[in-house]
Specification:
By secondary structure, the chain is an alpha/beta fold. The protein is built from 23 helices and 16 strands.
Length: 558
C-alpha cells in the first residue's frame, strides 16, 4: 500500500480513520437525454413546467427543514428561498422567450447568477454552491427523476465531495459520518458551518481529494488539515487514539502555556467589546492581544465623543484589571469594515485604500480623540494599556503614531500587516515599543489575494512560504532589538503553526478565546527545541503543504 498525504484548510479538529464515500450528485444522463429529445414547448408552457419543478424542490427543502434544527434548518429554508427567487425566474423566462430549451434556459440563468455572486465576493461567492445545487434539483424535477442527494454508506465513512451543498449537509446523521472533506469551500462555507454544529472533523479546500477512489481508507486530521490515503492501519489507529486523548486534555486544560521543557508561551485573547472581554477574562489567557475597537462602532453615523469612547474602552480594561496586559488597536475602519462616520464610500480598491491608520491622514483629530479616550479609560481603571495602529506601511507613520501614544503616557506599537512593515521591521522597532503581526492582512497583501475570496483560499493561507519569511524577518528583528513581537491574526490559532511561530521567536499569540486550549495543549506537547527545528524546517518549503509537512515532521509529541 502506498500512503499519500493531501492537505486542506482545517475547520473542525479531530482525528478519524475510515473509508472514503464520494458524493457526486449527478443526474442520470439517460434521463436528461430522453427529456431533450422531446418536442420543444412554447415559452409559457415551459415556464409552467419550471414553476412546477421549483415548487416541488422548495417543498421538499421545507419538508426537510421541518425535521432539522438550528443552522441546518436555517440553511434549508434559505436554499428554498433561493429556489423561488423572482430574479432567477425572470432570467429563465427571458431565455425561454428567446426560444432557448428549458434545461438550457435554467443552466444559463443560474450561470448569470453564479457570475454575479462570484463578482460580489465574500459570503455571496460561497452561495455559488447553493446555486449549483438548486440547478441540479430543478433539472431533476424537470426531467422527472428523484432529486440528487446523499446515499450514506452502511459503514461510517469520510464524506468526500467537490463542495457540499446546504441541502446535502443539513440533516446529516453524524452517527454514520466520520468527517467531511471537500475540494472547494472556505472556512465560512455551509460545509464548515454544519460541520461545526455537528462536531464533525472537517477540512475544506483540500485540493485533489475528489480524485481519491471510493472506499480508500483515509486518516483525516481536522487539526492539521491533512488527509492520508491508505496509511498503515496501526499508525492510523494510534493517531485516532492520540486524537481522543488530545480532546480529553483540551477539556481540562487550564494554562498557563509552557512547552514540554517549561518555556513559557504567552497566550492572549482577541476581543471586540466589553462583553467579549468579560467572557474571555476567566479563560486561561494572560491578557488581551487585540481589542478591535472598530467593531464597537460599525453602525455609528457620527463619531462618538471622547467620554463615550472612554467608557467603552474602560469596560474592556476593567475586565482585565488584574495586572494582565490589554493591547488596544486604534480604529481599523475601511475595506471590509466600513464605518459611516470614518470611511469614504466608493473607493475603487478599498483594501488598498484609506483604511486603518490612513484614516487619520485627512481626518484631523480622529486619531488624537481616540487616543485621548484610551488615556482617559486607562486613568479611570488604573491600568496601563498598550496601543497599536493598524495598516502601517512606513517608518514615518510608525514614529508619528508612537509620538502621539507616548505623549499620553501609553506604550506604543504597530501591527505588521503590510509586507512593507515586515521588510522594515528592524527600523520600525527602533521607533516603537512592540509590534503585533496581523497575519490575516499580511497574507492578503503578500499574496495579493482578497482574504474573503473563497476561491483563493489556497493563496490566503498563512503557511505560504512568502508569508512565513515575512513573519520570520519580523520576529528576528524583535529578537535583535529585545522588543516584543506578537501574532494576533488567525495563524496564532492554528496549533501547529503556533509552534512554528514560537520557534521563530514570536513572544505572544493572540486568538479567539475558544482556540486557546487547542494551542495550549499542542504547545505543551513539544519542546522549545522542536519549535525551533520546525521554524528552521519551514523556511525550506516551497508551498504551504510542504511547510506543514516539514513542521509536522519535527513536531511529534515529545
Ligand atoms: C490581521 O489582519 O491579521 C488582524 C488581526 O486584523 P483584522 O483581522 O482585524 O484585519
Ligand atoms: Mg488586519
Amino acid at each position: 500500500m502506498t500512503s499519500n498525504i493531501l492537505s486542506g484548510t482545517p475547520v473542525v479538529p479531530g482525528v478519524v480513520y475510515g473509508p472514503a464515500a464520494r458524493i457526486t450528485n449527478e443526474i442520470p444522463l439517460s434521463a436528461v437525454d430522453a427529456y431533450r429529445r422531446r418536442p420543444p414547448g412554447d415559452p409559457e408552457e415551459l415556464l409552467l413546467a419550471y414553476d412546477s419543478a421549483v415548487a416541488r424542490v422548495a417543498e421538499s427543502l421545507h419538508a426537510r427543514s421541518a425535521n432539522a434544527s438550528g443552522s441546518a434548518a436555517e440553511v434549508l429554508v434559505a436554499t428554498a428561498g433561493l429556489v423561488r427567487d423572482k430574479g432567477l425566474r425572470h432570467a429563465v423566462h427571458k431565455r425561454l422567450e428567446a426560444r432557448e430549451p428549458l434545461l438550457t434556459a435554467v443552466s444559463g440563468a443560474v450561470e448569470e447568477f453564479t457570475v454575479l455572486f462570484t463578482k460580489m465576493g465574500g459570503l455571496m461567492a460561497e452561495r455559488v454552491t447553493d446555486l449549483e445545487d438548486i440547478e441540479r434539483r430543478i433539472t431533476a424535477r424537470i426531467v422527472g427523476v428523484a432529486e440528487p442527494g446523499l446515499v450514506l454508506p452502511a459503514e461510517p465513512s469520510v464524506l468526500v465531495a467537490e463542495d457540499l451543498a446546504p441541502a446535502d449537509t443539513a440533516g446529516l446523521d453524524p452517527g454514520r459520518i466520520l468527517a467531511l472533506v471537500t475540494e472547494r469551500g472556505g472556512p465560512t462555507s455551509h460545509t464548515a458551518i454544519i460541520a461545526r454544529q455537528l462536531g464533525l472533523p472537517c477540512i475544506v479546500a483540500a485540493s485533489g481529494v475528489t480524485s481519491v477512489p471510493d472506499g480508500t481508507r483515509l486518516l483525516v486530521d481536522g487539526t492539521s488539515g491533512t488527509i492520508e490515503s491508505e496509511p498503515d492501519a496501526t499508525h492510523a489507529n494510534r493517531r485516532v487514539a492520540q486524537g481522543r486523548a488530545w480532546r480529553e486534555r483540551l477539556a481540562t486544560w487550564c494554562g498557563p502555556a509552557r512547552t514540554a521543557d517549561g518555556a513559557p508561551v504567552k497566550l492572549l485573547a482577541n476581543v471586540a467589546d466589553g462583553r467579549s472581554a468579560r467572557a474571555a477574562a476567566p479563560k486561561p489567557v494572560e491578557g488581551v492581544g487585540l481589542f478591535r475597537t472598530e467593531l464597537c462602532f460599525l453602525s455609528r453615523e457620527t463619531e462618538p465623543d471622547v467620554e463615550i469612547q472612554a467608557a467603552i474602552y474602560a469596560e474592556v480594561l476593567a475586565a482585565f484589571d488584574t495586572g494582565r496586559t490589554v493591547v488596544i488597536r486604534t480604529l481599523d475602519a475601511g475595506s471590509d469594515k466600513p464605518i459611516p462616520y470614518a470611511t469614504s464610500a466608493g473607493e475603487d480598491n478599498p483594501a488598498l485604500g484609506v483604511r486603518g491608520l490612513r484614516l487619520s491622514f485627512a481626518n484631523s483629530g480622529l486619531l488624537e480623540r481616540q487616543l485621548d479616550a484610551v488615556a482617559l479609560a486607562a486613568a479611570t481603571t488604573g491600568t496601563s494599556p498598550w496601543v497599536m495602529a493598524p495598516m502601517v506601511a512606513t517608518v514615518d507613520e510608525a514614529a508619528g503614531f508612537a509620538a502621539e501614544v507616548r505623549s499620553r503616557g501609553l506604550t506604543a506599537g504597530i501591527m505588521v500587516e503590510t509586507p512593507a512593515a515586515a521588510l522594515l521591521a528592524d527600523r520600525i522597532l527602533d521607533v516603537v515599543d512592540f509590534v503585533s503581526i496581523g497575519t490575516n492582512d499580511l497574507t492578503q497583501y503578500a499574496m495579493a489575494a482578497d482574504r474573503l475570496a473563497a476561491d483563493l483560499a489556497h493563496l490566503t493561507d498563512p503557511w505560504q512560504p512568502a508569508v512565513l519569511r515575512l513573519v520570520a524577518m519580523t520576529a528576528e528583528a524583535g529578537r535583535r532589538l529585545g522588543k516584543p513581537v506578537g501574532v494576533c491574526g488567525e495563524a496564532a490559532a492554528d496549533p501547529l503553526l503556533a509552534c512554528v511561530l514560537v520557534g521563530l521567536g514570536v513572544t505572544s499569540l493572540s486568538m479567539a478565546p475558544a482556540a486557546v486550549p487547542s494551542v495550549g495543549v499542542q504547545v505543551e506537547s513539544v519542546t522549545a527545541e522542536q519549535c525551533r527545528a520546525a521554524a528552521e524546517n519551514v523556511m525550506r518549503a516551497v508551498d504551504p503543504q510542504e511547510a506543514r509537512e516539514l513542521a509536522r515532521a519535527v513536531l511529534t509529541p515529545a
